[in-house]
Amino acid sequence: MYQKLTIVGNLGRDPEMRYTPSGQAVTSFPVATNRTYTGSDGNRVKETTWFRISAWGKQAENCNNYLKKGSKVLIEGRLVPDTTTGGPRVFNRNDGTAGASFEVTATTVQFLDSRQDSEGLGGGSSDIETDDEIPF
What we know:
Elements: E1 5-11, E2 16-19, E3 25-38, E4 44-56, H1 57-66, E5 72-80, E6 89-92, E7 98-111, H2 115-119
Parallel strand pairs: 4-7
Antiparallel strand pairs: 1-3, 1-5, 2-3, 3-4, 5-7, 6-7
C-alpha cells in the first residue's frame, strides 16, 4: 500500500527545530492552504485548512534555516493519524468551536519563494487568512 499527500501553502509561523534523544533533528511548522468558492446561496466562501508538518534530518535543518512565517512551500508527505482515533487530531478552539489538526510527515519540502521574496517577508502580503486562529 502507498500514500502520498501534496500540499502547497504558506507557513503560519516560524519553524521550530528540536533534536530527538538520539540526536536527529526534527522541525515542525504549520502550513495553511486556502480555497475560495461560491456557496449554494451565491456568496463567496473562503476556506482555510491547516496542516502541521514535521520534517526530519538534514531537511529539518534546511527548513529551520530558510523558512519563516509566510514562506510558500510545496510539501510531499504522508498523513499521520491520531493514535487514539485513527483520524485527524480533534480539539476545541478558544471560542468553543471544534477544529482538527492534520499531521503530516514530510518526505519532500520545496521552497517556492525566490530568495528576493523570502528576504522581503514580513512586510508583504501572503495567502494566509490572518483572521483564522492557528490551531496548534
